[in-house]
Every structure is written in structure tokens, then in C-alpha cells.
């Protein structure tokens, strides 16, 4: 018994010592939730020093608030948050909730200052008698301080220091609590506490917790609901009703009985509350945080990636990511749910889960760059048949796949470069089904490049032997565009492509300037290609992809964000010419004729890469532009033929037949409800080109003819072999382009030598088209006897051309 008495005296002495030191220091002792053994070695000097070193004011921690990403119509795309929290004022918290939290956590809250001395002593004695921590004597003010200090911590070490079971920390909390009590009223402290507290299962703050567990606002909480939430703050994980319903009920009932004991509620109210089920599982709202839990995860993650690269949100990606999750931003985006639904419908209609081939579609608005839709066939996730790759965007974004070779969709940029250089839309080049180009040179921005020995490309479609630019585009004639790119030069093509946002989506480098550039080069994405084609639709106005249209801070104040970034990179007349050529691709005789729909003018281009490992269709109206790709995205890459799409083996892979239906269904749905539009008709000058008259050289010695043509400002080549002609054998039979058509200054003119035959035209050469009126939707016709555009022929008409 003697030993016990000595121990009791030690307890009393320790308590008196600690309280005395605190009082002498101008404070009251903190409620301590640690065993008495912690008092050993805690001296008056340490206590006094701790209190004197602390500031007299408590700097409030900014609440970590969730940010929301919204679609263009305001619907939710995703919630970004470290803590799911919706701050509210105390007058929006049900009075019964305020009473419940005070009853269980600090029933004398409105009576004491920063410290409840009675509660502290009770906790100290209880903990000592049990030998472990059983009760906490902390006031609500002290709890608010502790949570705030944890919230301020930025490293694991700072968190550990803010939660350490030491008397020094408790005394520090007390000093801060005293400052808080001086700065704020009791109601203000309670409001801050309820907004800051963790209520379990990802719900931080009373409003988020009310919505999460009960699907009601905090202002609508009932007694049993309030009692459950009040009980959670002591152990948010242990008493979480979604984890353990029985423990949650036991804890809730403790709160109800405590409220009855304090006469906060009546016996009848208590009994009714005790009989109420803890939660209705059907009303529990999952805390779906992050892009992965939203309806458009790929688009959302691309948005987040763009924001994390914005220096306005942080000095680096880590800082920006933290800011986005804690700043309570409202981020409005370009995504149009209606158009996204139309694009998704196309994916659902033309693909199946388990397909080996992948499909992706992006839709962009010409003239603004607004990215309206972004879909793909493989769903988001890490399970079999899912992917975290976004097949629509560049590799520089962490989840970006980095594109696919784009095939003949590249010909659109060759067309633009040719028109810009003055080539007429009727420009003809003899284009055999195969063409030996080994050793031939193409000029580049830095010099020239030579085709490898034996390079003999061919056409993959039925060909016109001597096509115009429009006819070659309609049939995607490879040998025509290879020769056209040689005459135009690769630098103008590369320059236009670059100005329209085309670059290698794998490396970020400019597209390579190779002899085969016009047939596809590098890796590009549906986003890049749709946005580039959108510039043609916008008559040469290129706009960078625009995804984030506005950002507001937690107070609703607009933050500075980039708007539409548009620049006129092509003359409108050049874009009009491109639109005319690509429009005819979707008219009878074109590879895209079966994809035409509606009354608006449409333009498009197919693309198939070597071995058909990827196929494309890119097209547009004046309102929307889109690109669709079907490809093998699983290395080692194989031909699409034999792979599955829409649950069936692909028998023949083509831009029009495989990717085209995806594009058609998506764009048709997206355009539904929008007004009918037409392209601006190209000018007569654009149709006929900025050409010079060619000297008449038929019947001349080939070398003399070549010199005459060079003196007139043309590049000249004498074709090997001979052709049937009425001209004397060994003399010039004709040139390509023909003398009657003229040619742009500096372009190549090929001389064909006659073999003396009496035939008027070379073998397999079509007869010149007659001057006829073009029926609606029919191919373009030009009077071959009318000289090319030239001021001295002002009344020479441009012939008929397609609508719009």
C-alpha cells in the first residue's frame, strides 16, 4: 500500500506541476491524449520556452477544395481532389448537427476558452488509471488547430511532427488554440472545424459527408444522420458505415445517448433515432474522384496534362497537379456532350470489344480550334481489352500514344502548296500505274534529297493516265502526287503542314522531307489531322487545339487563360481551291463518294499506309472537321487484313471502306441540327492557276525545244523512249503540261519525243474533255480551247465547277 500511495502523490504532483507552468505562462493546460509516462522529464523550463517561442497569432490554413472539370454545357466531366470537400457557412449546417458534434466532442465548448480544464483533468486521470490512451481532453478549438497543422504539412516529416504524441506538441497546440479563440468567435471556430474535419470514406467537411452518406445537404440532416457524422470524426476509418455497419451503429448510438444525457434531445427522439437504420446503401454517393471515374477519361486526362504544363498553376508539373486538386477551380472545357455522344455512337456501331484493331476519332470546330469530341474503341482501364493510351493525341502527353503514319491524307498539303504556287486545278501530269523514280531529286528546305535506287512506286486505285489535279485527288493517284511534289518542292509542302500544326507526334520533330512525303510521313494523330483540315474549312485560318475555355477560382473569379489562338496561314483563295479539290473526292468518281451525306458541302481525303497497317479518313464541312483512324496499335505491327474490327476479320483495309464509315457516322451525328453550309467557290484565277504561256515547241528538235522552254523560265526534262504522234520521228510530239494549258513559272515541263506514228494522241491517253456544262454533283469540266488564266484573256470563263 505504501508504494501505491507514493505513486498517487506522483500523479498529483505531475498534474499540478504542468497546470501551474501553463497558468504562469499565460495559458491553460492542453487536453492530453497520452499516458502519464510522457510527463517524465517535461520541465517547467521546457514548457515556458515552448510557449514563449510560439507566435501570438494562428495563420488559418486555406481549405483544400476539390476542382471540377466541366463540359461546354456545364455537365460534370471529373472532380479533381486530394480531399472531397465543399466548404459551407455554419448557417447552412442543420442545428441538430451542430448540437451533435458539440455534445460528443466538447459539450462545454461555448462555456470554456481554449482549454476545458475539467475535461483535461478527467482525461488525464482516466488515461493514467487505464495505462493507455482512452480519452482525449482536447477542445474543439484544439482539434481544429491540430487538423490545421496537419493540413499545412507538406512532407511526411512535417505530418509526423504535427501528430507526434509529445507534451511539447500539445502545449504548442494549446498556444495556437488560445490565439484562435482570440481571433474568432465560437461559431466561427465551429464552422471552420466542421469544414475541415475528416468524415471518412473520402468525405472531408460536413457538406461533402452529408451528400456522400445520405444524398442530402448538411442543412437537411436529421438527428440519426447527424449523430452518425458526429461520431465519425473520432475514427473516420474505424466507424465508416460503408466498411463496418455494426461499429458505425454502436458509435452513432453513443452519440445519441450522450445527447440525451445532456438533455439536448428528448427520450422519445433518442428512442426513435436508435431504431433508425444507420444508412441507406442505395443513397450513398461514391466519391468518384479523378478522370478515371468520369464519363470521358481520355479527354479528361489530356485536359489535366495540358493544365499541369501551364506555369500559371505551378512552377512545375508536381506543383501544378497539387494546385489543381486543392484550389477549388471550376474548369470549363470545349467538349460538346452531344457531339461526343455522336462520335461514341459511331465507335459502338462499327467496333466491338475484343477487336484486335483500334479505332479513334476526333472532332474539331473550324475557326476556333475547339476540340468538340474525342473517342476511341478500347475503353479506359488496366484490364484485358482496356488501355490507358489515348490514341487521339501526341506522345509528349504521358498517356498519348503518339499517332500513326497518315498515308495519303498528306496529299492535301501537297495540293495546298501547288495551288499556292500557282498550279491550276486542271493541271495534268502523265501518271502511269508505276513510275521509276530511283535517283530522282526533290528540293527541300535545306537542299535536295534523292530517291533510292530502284524506287518505283505505283497506284493502288484505278487510274486516269493523264489526270488533272482534281482527278488525281479523286482517285488518290500516287504517281501524280509524287511528280507534283517534285515540281512544287518539298519545302513548301512541309512549311504549310507545319503551319497547320503537323509534326511528328512521336518525337515532336518536324515532318521529314523525303521523296515519298506526299504519300505519308512521320506519325500524326487524329487531333492533329482534324485540326489541320479544319484550317481548310476555315478558309486558311489555323487555330491551335483549344480545350480549356475558362477557369474560375474558388471564389468564382475568372482566371486568365489562353483563348482561341488563330492565325491566317493560307490565303483564303488557296484554301478555297483545296476545298474544291477535296470536295470532288466525295462526289461521284471519288474514293469518298459513298461517304457523302446531307445537304452541306463536304470534303475529305483517304489515307492508307504501307501494308495497310493503318487507314484514315479525314474530312469536314464548314462547321466541323474530323479525322478517323483504324490501326494496329500492338507491336510488332501487322497488316489490318485478317485482324478483327466490329467482331469480324478485315477482308480489305482502305481509308474509305474501313475508316470512312466511322468518320461518316460520327460527323453526320455531330452535324445534326446545325445549319446547311457550302464552301466558298474558288476564284477563276485559283481554278486556272497563276500560269505562264508555254512556248509552242511541237515538231522541234528536243534539245532546241528544251532550251526554248528553259529560256521561258521552266525546268525541263526529256522523257525516255518515244510516243505515237503525227510529228516527225525524233522531234517533239507534245509536252506535259500541254502548251494549251500553260504552267506555273519554274515548274517542270516534260518533253515527249515522237516516233513518227500517225496517231494524234499517245497510247492510253484520254481524249481532251469537251466543253460541257457540269450536271449537279458531276465532275469539273474546263474548255480545253480557252487559254489559261491571264489578264489578256479577261472574258475566258472558268467553266463549271461543283456546288459550294
From TrEMBL:
Alphabetical list of InterPro entries matching this protein: Beta-lactam/transpept-like, Glyco_trans_51, Glycosyltr_51/Transpeptidase, Lysozyme-like_dom_sf, PASTA_dom, PBP_transglycosylase, PCN-bd_Tpept
SMART domains: PASTA
Reactions accelerated catalytically: [GlcNAc-(1->4)-Mur2Ac(oyl-L-Ala-gamma-D-Glu-L-Lys-D-Ala-D-Ala)](n)-di-trans,octa-cis-undecaprenyl diphosphate + beta-D-GlcNAc-(1->4)-Mur2Ac(oyl-L-Ala-gamma-D-Glu-L-Lys-D-Ala-D-Ala)-di-trans,octa-cis-undecaprenyl diphosphate = [GlcNAc-(1->4)-Mur2Ac(oyl-L-Ala-gamma-D-Glu-L-Lys-D-Ala-D-Ala)](n+1)-di-trans,octa-cis-undecaprenyl diphosphate + di-trans,octa-cis-undecaprenyl diphosphate + H(+); Preferential cleavage: (Ac)2-L-Lys-D-Ala-|-D-Ala. Also transpeptidation of peptidyl-alanyl moieties that are N-acyl substituents of D-alanine
Domain PASTA: 688-755
GO CC annotation, single: outer membrane-bounded periplasmic space
GO biological process entries: cell wall organization; peptidoglycan biosynthetic process; proteolysis; regulation of cell shape
Domain of life: Bacteria
CDD domains: PASTA_pknB
Composition skew (Polar residues), residue ranges: 725-737
Region Disordered, annotated ranges: 725-804
Molecular-function annotations in GO: penicillin binding; peptidoglycan glycosyltransferase activity; serine-type D-Ala-D-Ala carboxypeptidase activity
Keywords from the named record: Carboxypeptidase, Cell shape, Cell wall biogenesis/degradation, Glycosyltransferase, Hydrolase, Multifunctional enzyme, Peptidoglycan synthesis, Protease, Transferase
Protein family (similarity comment): In the N-terminal section; belongs to the glycosyltransferase 51 family.
Record's protein name: PASTA domain-containing protein
Native organism: Kribbella pittospori
Amino acid at each position: 500500500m505504501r508504494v501505491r500511495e507514493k505513486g498517487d502523490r506522483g500523479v498529483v504532483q505531475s498534474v499540478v506541476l504542468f497546470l501551474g507552468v501553463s497558468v504562469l505562462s499565460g495559458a491553460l493546460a492542453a487536453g492530453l491524449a497520452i499516458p502519464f509516462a510522457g510527463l517524465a522529464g517535461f520541465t517547467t523550463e521546457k514548457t515556458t520556452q515552448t510557449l514563449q517561442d510560439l507566435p501570438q497569432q494562428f495563420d488559418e490554413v486555406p481549405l483544400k477544395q476539390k476542382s471540377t472539370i466541366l463540359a461546354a454545357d456545364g455537365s460534370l466531366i471529373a472532380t479533381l481532389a486530394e480531399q472531397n470537400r465543399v466548404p459551407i457557412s455554419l448557417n447552412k449546417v442543420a442545428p441538430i448537427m451542430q448540437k451533435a458534434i458539440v455534445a460528443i466532442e466538447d459539450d462545454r465548448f461555448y462555456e470554456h476558452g481554449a482549454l476545458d480544464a475539467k475535461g483535461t483533468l478527467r482525461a488525464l486521470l482516466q488515461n493514467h488509471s487505464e495505462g493507455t490512451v482512452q480519452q482525449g481532453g482536447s477542445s474543439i478549438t484544439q482539434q481544429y488547430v491540430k487538423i490545421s497543422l496537419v493540413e499545412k504539412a507538406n512532407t511526411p516529416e512535417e505530418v509526423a511532427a504535427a501528430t507526434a504524441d509529445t507534451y511539447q506538441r500539445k502545449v504548442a497546440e494549446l498556444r495556437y488554440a488560445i490565439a484562435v479563440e482570440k481571433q474568432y468567435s465560437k461559431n466561427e471556430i465551429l464552422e471552420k472545424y466542421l469544414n475541415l474535419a475528416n468524415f471518412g470514406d473520402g468525405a472531408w467537411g460536413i457538406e461533402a459527408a452529408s451528400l456522400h452518406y445520405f444524398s442530402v445537404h448538411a442543412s437537411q440532416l436529421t438527428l440519426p444522420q447527424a449523430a452518425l457524422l458526429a461520431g465519425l470524426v473520432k475514427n473516420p476509418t474505424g466507424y465508416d458505415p460503408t466498411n463496418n455497419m455494426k461499429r458505425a451503429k454502436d458509435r452513432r448510438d453513443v452519440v445519441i445517448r450522450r445527447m440525451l444525457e445532456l438533455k439536448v434531445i428528448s427520450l422519445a427522439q433518442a428512442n426513435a433515432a436508435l431504431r433508425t437504420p444507420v444508412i441507406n446503401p442505395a443513397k450513398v454517393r461514391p466519391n468518384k474522384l479523378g478522370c478515371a471515374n468520369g464519363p470521358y477519361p481520355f479527354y479528361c486526362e489530356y485536359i489535366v496534362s495540358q493544365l499541369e504544363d501551364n506555369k500559371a498553376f505551378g512552377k512545375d508539373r508536381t506543383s501544378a497537379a497539387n494546385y489543381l486538386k486543392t484550389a477549388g477551380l471550376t474548369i470549363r472545357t470545349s467538349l460538346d456532350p452531344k457531339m461526343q455522344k455522336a462520335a461514341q455512337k459511331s465507335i459502338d456501331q462499327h467496333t466491338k470489344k475484343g477487336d484486335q484493331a483500334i479505332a479513334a476519332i476526333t472532332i474539331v470546330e473550324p475557326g476556333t480550334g475547339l476540340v468538340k469530341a474525342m473517342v476511341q474503341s478500347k475503353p479506359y482501364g488496366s484490364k484485358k481489352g482496356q488501355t490507358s493510351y489515348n490514341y487521339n493525341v501526341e506522345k509528349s502527353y504521358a498517356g498519348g500514344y503518339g499517332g500513326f503514319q497518315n498515308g495519303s491524307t498528306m496529299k492535301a498539303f501537297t495540293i495546298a502548296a501547288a495551288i499556292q504556287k500557282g498550279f491550276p486545278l486542271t493541271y495534268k501530269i502523265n501518271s502511269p500505274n508505276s513510275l521509276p523514280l530511283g535517283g530522282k531529286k526533290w528540293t527541300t528546305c535545306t537542299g535536295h534529297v534523292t530517291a533510292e535506287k530502284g524506287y518505283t512506286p505505283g497506284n493502288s486505285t484505278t487510274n486516269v493516265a493523264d489526270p488533272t489535279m482534281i482527278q488525281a485527288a479523286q482517285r488518290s493517284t500516287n504517281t501524280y502526287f509524287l511528280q507534283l511534289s517534285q515540281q512544287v518542292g518539298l519545302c513548301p509542302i512541309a512549311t504549310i503542314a507545319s503551319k497547320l500544326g503537323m509534326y511528328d507526334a512521336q518525337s515532336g520533330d518536324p515532318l521529314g522531307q523525303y521523296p515519298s512525303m506526299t504519300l505519308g510521313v512521320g506519325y500524326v494523330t487524329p487531333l492533329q489531322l482534324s485540326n489541320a483540315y479544319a484550317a481548310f474549312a476555315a478558309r486558311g485560318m489555323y487555330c491551335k487545339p483549344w480545350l480549356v475555355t475558362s477557369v474560375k477560382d474558388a471564389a468564382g473569379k475568372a482566371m486568365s487563360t489562353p483563348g482561341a489562338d488563330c492565325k491566317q496561314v493560307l490565303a483564303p483563295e488557296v484554301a478555297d481551291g483545296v476545298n474544291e479539290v477535296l470536295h470532288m473526292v466525295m462526289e461521284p468518281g471519288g474514293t469518298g463518294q459513298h461517304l457523302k451525306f446531307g445537304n452541306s458541302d463536304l470534303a475529305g481525303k483517304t489515307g492508307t499506309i504501307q501494308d495497310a497497317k493503318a487507314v484514315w479518313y479525314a474530312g469536314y464541312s464548314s462547321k466541323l472537321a474530323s479525322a478517323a483512324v483504324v490501326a494496329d496499335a500492338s507491336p510488332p505491327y501487322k497488316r489490318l487484313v485478317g485482324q478483327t474490327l466490329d467482331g469480324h476479320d478485315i477482308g480489305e483495309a482502305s481509308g474509305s471502306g474501313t475508316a470512312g464509315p466511322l468518320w461518316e457516322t460520327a460527323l453526320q451525328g455531330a452535324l445534326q441540327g446545325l445549319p446547311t453550309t457550302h464552301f466558298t467557290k474558288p476564284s477563276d484565277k485559283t481554278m486556272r492557276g497563276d500560269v505562264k504561256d508555254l512556248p509552242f515547241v511541237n515538231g522541234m528538235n528536243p534539245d532546241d525545244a528544251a532550251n526554248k522552254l528553259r529560256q521561258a523560265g521552266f525546268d525541263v526534262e526529256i522523257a525516255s523512249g518515244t510516243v505515237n504522234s503525227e510529228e516527225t520521228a525524233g522531234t517533239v510530239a507534245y509536252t506535259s503540261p500541254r502548251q494549251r494549258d500553260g504552267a506555273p513559272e519554274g515548274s517542270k515541263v516534260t518533253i515527249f519525243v515522237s516516233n513518227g506514228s500517225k496517231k494524234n494522241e499517245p497510247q492510253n491517253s484520254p481524249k481532251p474533255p469537251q466543253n460541257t456544262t457540269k450536271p449537279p454533283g458531276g465532275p469539273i469540266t474546263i474548255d480545253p480551247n480557252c487559254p489559261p488564266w491571264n489578264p489578256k484573256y479577261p472574258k475566258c470563263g472558268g467553266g463549271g465547277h461543283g456546288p459550294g
